Amino acid sequence: MIKEPMLNQKTLDDKIRDLINMDEYVANENANKDEKVFNTQRDLLAGVAARDFALRHILPEEFAEAHNQGIIHFHDLDYSPFFSMYNCMLIDFKGMLKNGFSIGNADVEQPKSIKTATALVAQIVANVSSNIYGGTSFNRADEVLEPYAKISFDKYLSQAGQWISDPETQEKYAYEMTRKEIYDSMQSLEYEINTLFSSNGQTPFFTLNFGLGRSWFAREIQKAILSVRILGLGRDHKTAVFPKLVFTIKRGLNLEPSDPNYDIKKLALECATKRMYPDILNYDRIVEITGDFKAPMGCRSFLPSYVENGEYVTDGRNNMGVVTLNIPRIALESNGDKKAFWDLFEERLDLVCRALLFRIHTLDKVMAKNAPILYQYGATGKRLHADDYVSDLFRNGRATVSMGYIGLYEAAAVFYGPEWEHNPEAKTFTLDIVRRFKEVSLEWRSKTGYAFSVYATPSESLTDRFCRLDKQRFGSVKDITDKDYYTNSFHYDVRKKINPFEKIDFEKDYEPYTAGGFIHYCEFPSLVNNPEGLEAVWDYTYDRIGYFGTNTPIDKCYECGYEGEFESTAQGFKCPSCGNHNPETTSCIRRLCGYLGSVIQRKPIKGRLKEINSREKQQS
Prior knowledge:
seven-stranded mixed β-sheet, 20 helices
């Protein structure tokens, strides 16, 4: 790789000084970390040091230079490769609850009630999140928790038999008490997740998937999850940021009014209009794209199908990490020459894959005892001995490693101008880019035995970083670097006004090529009084895309009671009704690359607002 002059490289002392001074690009690197608290500051300091050391001493020079120049982005350098940790996962809650596990000094047996089961879920999430650096997900939570609700029911039925002679009344009592315990359990889980802090100083990035259960118990669990979220947190009924809720829609189960669980879909619609979550998974489309059904790991990372002993295995699997390619940089460097673009693109794809192979092999030295909750007590679906090496868990497609990309819009704009979306040749060009990503991922899987996947990167700060570095090198290029952000994923240009149906139709063509990670968003005005409008969009997505999220204003002022969208000003987010901008008496929730984020109003506020608004737009 040709070495290029390094732009504005800082020493470790400079970086630590920036952190001490709370420079916004350091302190605000993650919207769900509050940099004012000690444990977050400690994690940020450790991250600065680990990232610097990794770039100077652990990463091969070729990858470190490419990262520093903004050619690629080696994600999560504050954790990997300094520590041999992996990214996100689907925790095997079913196996852990059924077979027991250990945390700290406690040996935990199979729970004997839904209340105990959900309390253990929170403990598992906290412990797992402290041993990985990505999001965790509870796949098909209603079905996994269903047996423990049945145990509670049997307990209440037995109690009723001691005091009530009529069998019908006994059963009615048991159902009512079980319904209450399910609701209380889901509410407790919501509060426990939102009051937890993992070792890296933030609430665990936890996703709860549900919607496929058919029994009375599974239905009650689904309804409780949604009802608890609709109610909100605390006396002010604030919108909960975590867990992220993902509701599965399936034809014949809950899609249409004649389906048995359609009433729960209606409740999910109400919840989405009031609390932005749940996002939805369209069952048939997810199976078509990924090979079998499963929830995303964290916000958007998906696993391909994997068969073990003749059965599909989903829970316990993980993603090993991400390296993202700066596609607009290649387009700018090619100077409008398509052949030069494709030649350079091939070189950079090879660079990304070799960087990912290095990332994979940082896990070769890990032993089960390094993270007992993952490898000895079942979170990965396996129970190894303390001195066993764990690398076999990541081979043969059981885990993924992700080739990320960013800036399809800007790359096409270099060659076809800023209005290229209706140009079939330009659309084909962008599809060819992601198609080639997929082809190369399959080639590297065949070559190495590891499941390379293509990932529409949720670029919370990378949309800024790549653009900022390219602007330093190429100057302010109209419709490319002059915006100060690159467009995330395969999303439609946020500056253009289109309806949700047009956006879905435009973006759906990219999904089959980026099956390792994707989500679609549409921005709406307040939908509280129009859930039918949102349902029309949900239904339209069913046979077209797999994963869809709602972006709608849900800000609230606790001074005057206004609910809707706040104004962005130099003083912070402001209530348009009474002018209140006190963060203690307002709630501002925004989409932050896959998750919701509670906006913490900081100073200097102007730059912070710009950053938040651009991130939100990239997803809308």
